[in-house]
Each structure stands twice: as structure tokens, then as C-alpha cells.
Amino acid sequence: MFELFFPFFLLVLFFIFLCIFWRINARKYISSDTVASAYDAWTQDKLLERLWGEHIHLGFYPSGKKNIDFRKAKVQFVHELVRWSGLDKLPKGSRILDVGCGIGGSSRILAEHYGFNVTGITISPAQVKRARELTPNWLNCNFQVMDALDLKFEDGSFDAVWSVEAGAHMNDKTRYADEMLRTLRPGGYLALADWNSRDLELYPPSFFENLVLKQLLEQWVHPQFISINEFRNILRSNKNSSGRVISENWNSYTNPSWYASIFEGIRRPLTILSLGPLALVKSIREIPTILLMNWAFRKGLMEFGVYKCRG
After folding, report:
1. Whole-structure pTM value
2. Cα(97)–Cα(118) distance, integer angstroms
3. Are 309 and 242 in contact (CB under 8 A)?
4. What's 126's domain CATH number?
């Protein structure tokens, strides 16, 4: 009897430890410094890069297909957003601002495949350092540490502004939109993708959904989520926008990414173990949040919004 009970007892202890570890190490948004610190840590431990490659964002799965390599799906996402937003109409040499560039995955694709001159900005010094290390000298990419809510560029400096999964970290969504559109030249292109909640005023969350949203905010340094319609209206009302803003919900194309992100760890266990025992704990620590994200996006509590407009 004891032999049967003991494994279950260990599993319960491990689950309790994981929950305590999860709560103690919650990454609540306090200021932009907490976002920078979180991304510095994720970059320096190299776990995400080793597992997911050069792109932290979700992948694109045509018609919801799941039998696509996770890393290839991420590259596919960049090309799909370029085409959907119209950036592929820009000539080579066009100046592109990548807001929230991470370690430069999207910036390198925009420079190499489309011939753009790309400036990537992130609030994380570690990400800028790593982006520079990964970028060949012959690519027209440069990376800078900069707050997206206080861009150090002149008005109309860029032919296009690109931002993928950065807005959820912004505590002032209007300022975020203002700064991007201010630096976009008249007639330039804005291409943006982000995590959004559904319209919580029109469809108030249940008690359980509120708990889920609280965890999604606290675990990955998010100050708040807003709906696709809310952010579209922010872009539409901006004085530097043409006023014609198109948005879509890409949940059906991106949802397979959540399970795929976990399977990468199962497919590459030596990648995790090679970084030491703490890396295994860190990777397991992320699983509950990933599963909650998967549930929230599949149930429509969260939506993957994409936006395009002209300056």
C-alpha cells in the first residue's frame, strides 16, 4: 500500500512546491523597470532562446494546422504580418522601427528578406546585447535600449513601425500608440500584433475568469489587457493616424503555439538539462501560465489582435 501511495505523495508535494514557487516568484508589473528586469533575466539564462529560437512571439499556423515546426511557425508569422499589413509594398531601404524587438528575430527577417533598414528598440539591455551578437554586420539592423513610451526619434522618422506582443507590457496604451504614430511618416505603415482581452465591459468576466486574468497579469509583468476594439479606437482617434484602422482576431492561427511551446521542452530535454538543474525548475515553473494562456485564448477570454493603419 505504501509503495502505491508514496509516488502520489511525492507528486502532491511537488505540486505544492510549484504553487509556492509560482506565487513567491510572481513577476508583477510595478514599473517599466520590472519589465526590463524580467526580460534581462529571460535573456541571460538563455532558456527561451535555446528552446524557442530567436523569436519569443507566437507562431502562425495556416488554417489552424498543428503539424508545423514551432520555430518555423514563428518565422511564418513575421511574413504573414508583413503581407497582411502591406509592408511588402515598401521599397528596399525603407526605414522600419521595431518596437519591442526582443533579441532581434523579426528585425533580422525584415532586413534580410525585405531589404529594410531596421532600428530595433527594447527596454532590456540584455536583449540589446544579445540582438547585436546575433546580427551579422552586413544586415541593416541596429538595436538600442529605449522606452517605447518615450521614443527618442524625431516626428516622421520611419516609413513603417512594427510591434509584436509588446503592448501588453505598456501601462499607458494611448501613449504607446501616440509614440509609434508620431514617429511614423505621413502615409507610412503601422503593423502591430498584441495580446488582448475580450471586451470585459460588454462581457464581464466570471469569478474564475477574473482569477485567470489576475495570474496572466502577475506572472509575465503585464499591467493590463484591453480589448481589440479599445485599442483600435485608440489608434483611430490619434491625430497622426489616417483614421482607417483595420484589426482582426488571429486566435485560430496562433493558438497552436501554446501547446507547441511546451512540446519544445519535451522534444529537447537535453537543451534544458545542459543549462543546469535550475533551468529545469524554471521551465516547469512557466507551464501553468502557458496552460492558462492556452485556456484563455481558446475560450475567447483572450484574443490575439492584429492591427494595420497608415500614418
Report:
1. 0.91
2. 6
3. yes
4. 3.40.50.150
